[in-house]
């Protein structure tokens, strides 16, 4: 859930009122039984990336607002709309965002359940329905989208969360492991099963039996991608062999499934276009038959390689080191003043140092370009991780000035150039970050456009590194660097396509694709050529 705000809750689903564990926090109690929640609970910060709050049976709430048919609060109908089928009346993503805000003022809403039931076996759909007070049709859609995950015992909590929360969850983990050993279940497991007891897996079968002490996570408001249903997936198949499929990905769709949506992605689209699956069965077919090799960013379009088996994926990934070249097109904004000279300066090898997976409060994960002298560790305040800078390299082979792009209003102070780029190192967001740092943001890239300013990048880095004697940052608000004069955040991950395309892939060793000669794949025209 990169860069997305989250409401999250831990509910103890208990059918045994005698053996309930009580989680205390700030002298208040989180306690659930079949019939009632006997006490309320304070918000517990930083539990699996969000807040921990009370969730009551028959009173589904967000920050005190009942989940009901009340027009003044979150409504079942809003949730039904977000989970609706594509039938020609599916609402656009802006309408979904509006409904998500009505459902809790955050695009992601996660419920964490620990099942504490000694007397009867329960199905997954029953647990979600009964203890989150959801209608059966809503539960069915959540399972269809793959928005439900489960593990045999709760996953380990990160060290950054509140110690009281960590102790509570650790207690359940210990009790769960003790029960599994006492029941003999542990002895019947092989080594791999024992090592993956806390591994969280996506579950789409409503009849899945949930054993005692299992952990269930429900993403109630999946992020939808309307574009998935508008694409002619068969026309997006560039090439296909016994072991692989080459797809021309549209911008605005993720390649693999997201944590809350296994249906609307390029992998499922490949199942539709290359394997003949319907939209309804595409996700299951994709998860059973297809494997992701190369990934490109959600807003980037162009070539991706999908494997039909894991052996091909291994061979392909092993050949990536220097034997496969990837070429990109990018339409960028260049300041009009002396633009010819500015473009000439960036032709050739472009090298930067960058911090990968840079994350601060209220900002998406991003690649932050830093000075060449930044070589030491960079601690992240809210994740507890220590990051290092790495080298990013690409070659800008050419640049052509464009007259304009239909449907895009170019600022009077800039002109548009299309760059031809060979990627050498392949870091996450690398081209977007490097071009922005060079002063040439990619058109429609709302995440990296504010980072053209060196003072903004240095400000964010300073926020992460500078601390006072108490370990707190010396800067009050890191987001001051990426907000406008009205306080609106500027650095947002774009919802749709940006002007970046992976247009060619060249394999010097064609044997990977079953050829004795080198192999090249070419994408179609980018959206800004067709506009």
Could you walk me through the main structural features you see in this protein, from its secondary elements to its overall organization?
Strand 22 (378-379) and strand 23 form a beta hairpin. It contains 13 helices and 27 strands. It is α+β, with helices and mostly antiparallel strands and 531 residues long. Helix 1 packs antiparallel against helix 2 (93-102) and helix 7 (266-275) crosses helix 8. Mean pLDDT is 77; it is low at 1-9, 12-74 and 467-476. The strands form 7 sheets. Strands 15, 16, 17, 18, 19, 20, 21, 24, 25, 26 and 27 form an 11-stranded mixed β-sheet that branches. A 5-stranded mixed β-sheet has the order 1-9-14-11-12, covered by helices on one side. A 3-stranded antiparallel β-sheet has the order 2-3-4. The two termini are 32 Å apart. It has helices at 76-82, 93-102, 124-131, 136-144, 163-182, 191-195, 266-275, 279-289, 310-318, 339-346, 430-437, 454-465, 527-530; strands at 6-14, 23-25, 28-32, 37-39, 44-47, 50-52, 61-62, 65-66, 108-116, 122-123, 148-151, 201-202, 209-210, 215-219, 237-240, 244-249, 291-292, 301-307, 324-335, 348-358, 366-370, 378-379, 386-387, 389-402, 414-423, 500-507, 519-522.
